[in-house]
Write a structure and sequence with these properties.
This protein is an alpha/beta fold and 314 residues long. It has 2 domains: 2-123 and 281-311, Medium-chain alcohol dehydrogenases, catalytic domain (Quinone Oxidoreductase, Chain A, domain 1, Alpha-Beta Complex), CATH 3.90.180.10; 126-257, 3-Layer(aba) Sandwich (Rossmann fold). 25% of the residues lie in helices and 27% in strands. Strands 3, 4, 5, 6, 7, 14 and 15 form a 7-stranded mixed β-sheet that branches.
Length: 314
């Protein structure tokens, strides 16, 4: 099968032919249709985060995967050949940048009938990060949340999904993004938009119960906008966020770094929201598998709107 691989940290991706893997206990073999790019992919490849997220080299990167089941390990039940499925592949290497991939049933769900493969690949990692950040990190009630929520980076991969999840929970959701994406986030449900190029407008806002930072992880920059018992969470936590979390025990405000825990149950929650018409994945741009390096460069620019999709079966 064809796969994209890098042989060492900082080395370029190359297209290689490797053997199709065989599923072992608790796994299914999936023939891929689509994958998606997440910043963690190229950050791992650079070697800059190897102390916390090392790779086994050589590495076939990527975590989001959508396709059809080809075969199952003997112990697997609930899945069969031909099922349309998607997952955030577990483990340190992923393996989603290939024509076939192994997925554990603990992270795998069947796609809703109305879901296309681009949406299916764009949803797992970003969607679960959005859901867990709001629900677990920021303690936002998922039913009848009568709270004010600020989503920083609301037009990005995680942010645009967090915005919709907050709205589905019943919260008043305010978006932070550039002015050029204001119309887009309003279309996704934002009830107010703040241009990050105009920080002076932030201080005129009533305080927020929750701030979910999907951009820089600078807790000190945002906690002043919280209520006295407000909660800040970040899916890109910096050193300052961890430091502020350490001292938050002396404050009524809370600070939470968000570390994704991939699991089928949370992916099923996202699938249900999609099925109910409350969640959609914004597709920013699509690339063939052979242009994965180009897709990474686009992601590295920091100007991505929505999700970058990789078409495997082309």
């Amino acid at each position: 099968m064809r796969a994209m691989m890098y042989r060492g940290y900082g080395e370029p991706l190359e297209s290689v032919e490797v053997e199709i893997p065989k599923p072992s206990r608790g796994q299914v073999l999936v023939k891929g249709q689509t994958s998606s790019v997440n910043p963690v992919d190229w950050k791992q490849a650079s070697g800059k985060i190897r102390l916390i997220m090392p790779n086994k080299l050589p590495c076939t990167p990527g975590y989001d995967y959508a396709g059809e089941v080809v075969s199952c390990a003997p112990d697997v039940t609930g899945f069969a050949k031909g099922d349309r499925v998607h997952a955030r592949i577990a483990g340190i290497n992923g393996g989603a940048s290939a024509e076939y991939a192994l997925c554990g049933v603990d992270v795998l769900t069947k796609m809703p009938d109305t879901m296309d493969f681009a949406t299916a690949a764009g949803l797992p990692l970003a969607g679960m990060t959005a859901l867990q950040g709001l629900r677990d990190g920021a303690k936002l009630p998922m039913n009848d949340a009568s709270e004010r929520v600020l989503i920083v980076g609301a037009s990005g991969g995680v942010g645009h999904l967090a915005l919709q999840i907050a709205r589905a929970a019943g919260a008043t959701a305010i978006a932070v993004c550039s002015d050029r994406n204001a119309g887009l986030v309003r279309e996704l449900g934002a009830q107010g938009v703040l241009d990050y190029n105009k920080p002076e407008t932030f201080s005129t806002q009533p305080p927020f119960d929750v701030i979910y930072d999907c951009v820089a992880g600078d807790a000190g920059k945002w906690c002043g906008l919280l209520t006295k018992s407000g909660r800040y969470a970040s899916c890109v936590p910096g050193v300052g966020t961890f430091a502020r979390k350490a001292v938050s025990i002396f404050s009524s405000q809370s600070v939470a770094p968000v570390m994704l825990k991939s699991n089928a149950a949370d992916l099923a929650v996202l699938d249900s929201l999609f099925g109910a018409g409350k969640l959609r994945v914004l597709i920013g741009k699509r690339f063939p598998l052979s242009a994965l390096q180009e897709a990474w460069k686009h992601s590295e620019s920091g100007r991505t709107t929505g999700k970058l999709i990789v078409d495997i079966a082309t």
